[in-house]
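Entry 14. Ran structure prediction on the chain below.
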Amino acid sequence: MRDRLSLTDVQRLLSEPTEEARAAIAVKVAAQFNNVLLPPKERELAQEILGYLVHDIATHVRATLSRCLSDAADAPREVILALANDIDEVAQPVLESSTVLTDEDMVALVVGGSAAKQRAIAGRPNIGPSVCEAVARTGDRSAVIVLVANEGIVVRPDILEKIVNRYPADADVYDPMARRADLPGALVERIVTTVSKSLRDQLVERHGVDKATAAVLEDIAREHSLVAMMGDTDPEGMFQLVAQLADQRKLTPSLLLRALCAVEMRFFETALAYLTALPHDRAERLVHDVGALGFRAIYARAGLPEALFLAFRAALDAAHELDAKDALGNKVLVRRVMLQRVSAQYRKIEAKDIDLLLDRMTRSARTLPWRTGRAA
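Output, structure tokens:
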């Protein structure tokens, strides 16, 4: 067996007390714990040497030991804990990947550790809810950002809500959180609203934009962001998002039209089901009715503005055509087709892209009577 430990190694530790020699022994002894066939006597010898090296005066030796033991599943627990509680440079490798550490260990390390240690733990691919909650509740802001950017783990909705409550209007926290697939619909709207208000304040305070115009731009920004973020929301979360938007009078015709033009069909169907108090499957059938009456009927029951019906009809027809061509993945094509179809119904409005067209169309719709409650 290559590189087996022997008494010679022990003698070398005693006779050549240089940092380089101790680091070399650390590499060799750490490697033994990845060898499942290591005889008991040699494993015991290796463990004794580890117990000696983990308290080495040289940081380089302890850091070398930490790197070499970070992926050793059979490494002695007391050694791993000693390394994890060492200075940041030494602790980082085992904090990032050692499977010897339990969730209880990591919670204690988050609560009592430095920001660097918290970041190392928050970025692990295998942390549980208790560790996530510890980071969310007591972790340094930089560790929280690492946690919400860690897409390899599941973060419970209540933990994400704690983070939003702890860091209101913090774009550095919200940006990676917005890209999470497990972000609840209710938090999607809350984050987008907060960011939009921040945009409005900047326009008013820094750029001299009047408050009325800034409010319109805030609404547009919020709707843009909502549509961009709603794609990964699950059915239950989608219904909660729709209900929350309706309660806050933000389930507007312009938002529904933007979603339809982005082919966010689940949101559009759920919104019409909510507004008409129809079961989702029935609303879906009416929305996609190939005849002339189904969509017209549910559109009228939802109370959507008549002035925008042709835009909704054109966007829905284009979505059906694009779906039949399996072209929904081509965003450039989708936006071009939507612009052509919708603008054909509103020739007095000039716009070079679909966003500008929708902005100009829906600003006038904001002055129309509009309700957001369920149909009677």
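The chain has 22 helices and no strands. Will compare against last week's run tomorrow.
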